[in-house]
Write a structure and sequence with these properties.
The chain is mostly helical. It has 6 helices and no strands. α1 runs antiparallel to α6. It is elongated and about 65 Å long.
Amino acid sequence: MLGTRVRAVVVGICSLLLPGLGQALIRRWVRALFFLGLFITTVAVFVPESALTADVPLDGLFAHAQAVSQNMSDWGTIAITVVQFGAMMDAYVQTLQRPTQTTEGPTCPRCGREVEPTHGFCQWCTYEFEEPADN
């Protein structure tokens, strides 16, 4: 259980740094695109246009980020923080709620999903099963 919680914390931190990144790490693509789009929209609405179009050298990136955050309104800071916190919590909860697969039939040796043995291959990952040796 410790591994799952550690993974959930790492995914949450990644999603805090860039909303949608944590969801992408756990392969929840629609949620990842949603949070990334929401973050980009929030930044576009609340960050002043002059801050987005300024040429910034890499050595002054931290100073530029501080200047942008000081020029941003309180509502902009709150909105971006809410989006980041929401993405972080969503990624954390989604990681902890990943269903454990309990299958009753045979499973694929590559992806672990339940398969129909008469097909001769996994319908999920297209792994071909070996033919049993004739005795």
